[in-house]
Amino acid sequence: MVEITETWIDSQAPNSAAIKNGQGLVKKGRFLQLHHSEDHAVLFGTCAGSGSSDYQPSADFAVPEKPVMRCTCPSRQFPCKHVLGLLYAYAGGAAFTPAEVPEDLAAKREKAEKREERKLKETAEGATPKPKKVNKSALKKKINAQLEGLDVLEKLIQSLIRNGLGTLDKKEQKLIQEHVKQMGNYYLSGAQSELRRLALVLSDKDQEKAYTYAVEQLAVMNAMIKKGRQYLTSKLEDPEMALDHESTIEEWLGHAWQLTELQSFGLVSEQAELIQLSFLSYADDARLEHVDTGYWIQKDSGEIHRTIQYRPYKAAKLMREEDSFFEKARVPVLYRYPGDMNRRVRFEEMASTPVTEEDMVWIHEYAAGSYADAIKKVKNQLKNPLADSHPVMLLPVSRISRNDEGQYAITDEAGQSVALGDVFLQPTVPMLRYLPEEKLSGVSMLVMSEHCLTTGRLLAQPLTIITNHEIIRLLY
User: What is the DSSP letter of 276?
Assistant: First the structure.
């Protein structure tokens, strides 16, 4: 069975409220019975409910890295607070007595074991899950609709540019909103989000700022239209109508990658070890979703990956909310999405172990050796309008300095410097003043970069500082 720690349990919880409620059940003594199976693979018990009925939560670790959690309560959250409370009780050293697994739970477990045996057999025989077979006739109709939608979008963009953003009135704002709805009808969810983002930018009361960022957003949409049209046209000419698994154009057009598709293109790594260096969660009003993003470093390659979870506003309460993870994750299968720097990754199973000082050593070794090379790499990415505009890198820091005007900068051993600034959401630069001097030199720093449109400078926002002994998160 996996090591059940509070950190691991937190990572399984759907949101912070569920963590608090699960811990509250333990503190209030709501568990009437706590048991484990003879082989210690199943934890189960009885928890007093808010009404007259008691609930039976359980956690089955027949497959250690992929536990099955169940409860008889009516909650739509998964796992519910009763299962979390059961696990917190176990992690806290509560007395669990051996008992026979209830008959209904044993029956469900037997079915699960058979399914797992079948999967293992297929894996041993070399069977690879195949992506869903594509209906080429339906796909052709969808592509033609998308091309039509791009034409409609292009006409709107050209109209806005021709008339000038300064003449934008309520009538044109309403027209933009109407086109936002139309993009959904054309199967262009990506264009729909970006057009909504443009509307949000233009609604900013600071007109100078609004026009500056609107120009950038228009450039992004123009690139999406041109590259999208070129890609879709070539796809129609391809007899196989194959997906582009090298660039991000599919996601820009609204394709949601399936794990079987990524696996069929060989975008997987096995037995990967990852350490999360930073985590942030924010509301994206253009997508109408909450976005949970974790930045992880992979041990065998040093790549900085992103895990991204989108939680639509309408369903956010029913979905698991990702959170900071402070241990090392051992991942049996790591799926990689198409992309350049900080490509998105995903995994379904993991086992966690504590981060050690030996891990600090290899993290430091992967810090980029030269600021000049790092800046060049970032600039090359920013030249592509459809690339992530906030790339993240791990840099070596000889020292962190501050000038008379309060501007911070990091310097490498060659004497090259990079200015620090807050470029995304929550400010972190002001936190540097509270760190002792020994944590501001001879360290590695995870930074998020941005080309500041108002000043034309490249800025880096500190996310995390890695010393020889600890990982200090400024954003989590």
Answer: E
CATH 3.30.70 fits 259-364, yes or no: no
Report the distance separating Cα 211 and Cα 201, nearest Å. Answer: 8
CATH topology classification for 366-473: OB fold (Dihydrolipoamide Acetyltransferase, E2P) (2.40.50)
Distance CA 275, CA 326 (A): 8
d(CA 268, CA 245): 12
Q: Which residue in this structure is represented by tokens 């960022």?
A: 213
**For the chain, how many residues are written?**
476
The token duo for 403 is 């000038």
Q: Which amino acid is at 215?
A: V
Q: Tell me, rounded to whole angstroms, the distance of Cα 105 from its chain centroid.
A: 34
Q: How far are the Cα atoms of 33, 204, 282, 321, 438 from residue 424, in angstroms, in the given order?
A: 48, 17, 10, 21, 27
Q: Which two tokens stand for residue 29?
A: 């003594």
Buried b (16+ CB within 10 A) or exposed e, 86-115: bbbbbbeeeebeeeebeeebeebbeeeeee
pTM of the model: 0.81
Packing angle, helices 170-185 and 136-163, rounded to 10: 170
The torsion region of residue 16 among left (phi > 0), alpha (psi -120 to 50) and beta comes to alpha
Radius of gyration for the alpha carbons in the chain, expressed in angstroms and rounded: 25
| Contact in structure between 428 and 463 (CB atoms under 8 Å) | yes
Structure tokens of 369? 């050796």
How many whole angstroms separate alpha carbon 184 and alpha carbon 195?
A: 11
Q: Per-domain residue ranges for the chain? A: 6-124, 136-249, 259-364, 366-473
- Please choose, from the candidates 400, 397, 476, the residue with its C-alpha nearest in 3D space to the C-alpha of residue 435: 400
What is the Cα–Cα distance from 287 to 193, expressed in whole angstroms? 5
User: pLDDT averaged over consecutive 10-residue blocks of the chain (476 residues)?
Assistant: 81 86 93 91 90 89 82 88 95 92 82 70 57 81 95 93 80 90 93 93 80 88 94 92 91 91 93 96 94 96 95 84 89 94 92 91 89 90 90 93 85 90 88 89 93 81 94 90
- Token pair 């009538």 is found at 171
Query: CB of 133 within 8 A of CB of 70?
Result: no
Which pair of tokens denotes residue 254? Answer: 């609204």
d(CA 362, CA 359): 6
CB 392 within 8 A of CB 348: no
